[in-house]
Input
Amino acid sequence: MIAALALFDIHNAVAPSPDPVVQVHQIPVCYDPVLGNDLHVLSDQTSLSAEEIIQIHCAGHYRVGMMGFLPGFGYLTGLDPRLRTRRKAQPDAQVRAGSVAIAEDMTGVYPFDSPGGWLILGHTPQRMVDFSNSHQPTLLQCGDKVTFYPISIETYGKIAH
Output
């Protein structure tokens, strides 16, 4: 009984945390084959053209379901079922930071150079992590909403530099 009262007091003493602020992020993506080196693989798997894949990916409204794998890597839920695909049988030893990828029923952006087993559709010049921002170093937080929009390789080059 005393333990139950102690737990009751502890739970009542903690102020409820306010609802987190949900950010909405619009992330530019260059789907040029030079940067989206697995676009043709997904096209072969789904029988969709590269243009259809890009249109479907950009039409999605995604939500950060969880963070993990690397700091700043958001697992984005809400991928259109027509784009669902398996992870690569043999992961890439090196995936560039900013690579926009899909696997299973999720999409995401690699925040750092790292190994990876997701299909790479394109690349964003958007930084996903900024450690100089000590308040919130990662762009994405759980619950945030994300959309992608296509940019040309010329625009990509201007933004990236």
In short: Residues 2-13 form the longest helix (12 residues). The chain has one domain: 22-160.
